[in-house]
Design brief:
Layout (H helix, E strand, L loop, with lengths): L13 H6 L4 E5 H16 L2 H5 L4 E5 L4 H4 L4 E3 L4 E4 L6 E4 L1 H11 L3 E3 L12 H20 L7 E3 L1 E2 L5 H11 L7 E3 L8 H14 L6 E3 L5 H9 L4 E2 L3 H7 L2 E4 L2 E4 L19 H5 L2 H7 L8 H15 L2 H12 L7 H9 L6
């Protein structure tokens, strides 16, 4: 999913996003609740109508702001008390309030409010957050007004503690939900710590329901975690990278501001069918750096992953992708270990 925190991707219209075959985007409950505000969204009839978006929406609960705005927030059993970075107004984001805002937004997928802690800490606070996340899930579900048209996804927490992650996942399985998220990762921990937590979670969660790995968007991570059983991802990396003038390609990145592209009249990728590659050269993009348009290459990667899974050729795809991405065969050890755990050998 591309991340449109406040209901938009910077520099792109909803029509342009739709033309990139994007069926689902992410918006943030906390930021939308502040601006444009819940009353405006009510009058508009929800975020779909407000932004003229025909496809699906997923809303983050606002829980991530516990980490990103840690200096402005306080966590209690009631919820998260924030000082708004917009106007310094104080707001209590409780499970009930988060659910109310998401009901007003009319998101197709709503994330429960979870107690988010940094992935780099350990100790009692991690266990406290895991148990509170489960309690808050039940409060979110009780407050949910549109169960027939909006789905709440619970979030597996537990930091880097395998026992806590297992305990949380098993507890969430007792609730009848449409899908699950894996949270609290990709926040500064090493890849060697990261992938086993993903593996533990996907092995416990049902294969017949979506498994959403939150905050992951690097190309190698997407391929490896798809192999581990994840179905959905979100990250600001693709669009943020594009805004700074880099295009994501199969072998890594092209930093289009570099002088070597001044007279390079090839497309970004020769065989790519996207609008940018069909109509513009590297030389042209070097001059004007149409940042947002080049972000679609990560969507191409995700389409390739889906198509190869459907065709039964995913293992060959992974091997080919890793060979192109690491032409010298210097694969990251964590990726080799993770892929080996699901029977994919890069030898």
């Amino acid at each position: 999913m591309p991340v449109g925190t406040q209901g938009t991707l910077k520099g792109l219209t909803p029509e342009q996003i739709e033309n990139q075959k994007c069926n689902l985007i992410l918006a943030n409950t906390y930021h939308l609740g502040m601006r444009p505000g819940i009353e405006t969204l009510k009058k508009a009839g929800g975020l779909h109508k407000f932004m003229s978006w025909k496809n699906a929406l997923l809303t983050d609960s606002g829980g991530f702001q516990m980490v990103s705005l840690v200096k402005l927030s306080e966590v209690t059993e009631e919820g998260v008390r924030f000082v708004s970075p917009y106007d310094e107004r104080e707001i209590m984001l409780s499970p009930e309030k988060s659910t109310e805002i998401q009901n007003t937004i009319h998101a197709d997928i709503m994330m429960q409010l979870d107690d988010v802690v940094s992935s780099t800490i350990s100790g009692p606070r991690v266990e406290e957050a895991m148990h509170r996340t489960i309690r808050w899930l039940d409060r979110c579900r009780s407050a949910h007004k549109n169960a027939a048209t909006q789905n709440i996804f619970p979030i597996v927490q537990g930091g880097l503690d395998a026992k806590l992650r297992t305990q949380c996942a098993l507890e969430l399985l007792k609730r009848d939900v449409a899908g699950y998220a894996i949270g609290g990762l990709s926040g500064g921990e090493s890849k060697e710590e990261f992938w086993p937590m993903v593996d533990i979670s996907t092995n416990l969660l049902p294969k017949g329901k979506p498994r959403y790995l939150m905050g992951v968007g690097f190309a190698v991570d997407l391929v490896v975690c798809s192999a581990l059983g994840c179905d959905m991802f979100d990250c600001v990396f693709p669009t943020r990278t594009a805004r700074f003038g880099s295009a994501l390609v199969l072998g890594g990145q092209l930093h289009l501001k570099g002088t070597e592209f001044r007279n390079d009249f090839r497309p970004i990728e020769e065989d790519c069918p996207c609008s940018t590659c069909r109509h513009y050269t590297r030389a042209y993009l070097h001059r004007i750096v149409k940042q947002e348009t080049v972000a679609c290459h990560l969507m191409r990667l995700m389409k390739s992953i889906r198509d190869n899974i459907k065709a039964g050729t995913f293992v060959d795809f992974v091997k080919g992708f890793m060979g192109i991405y690491f032409p010298g065969g210097d694969y990251p050890a964590w990726a080799v270990q993770a892929l080996s755990s699901v029977g994919i050998s890069l030898d």
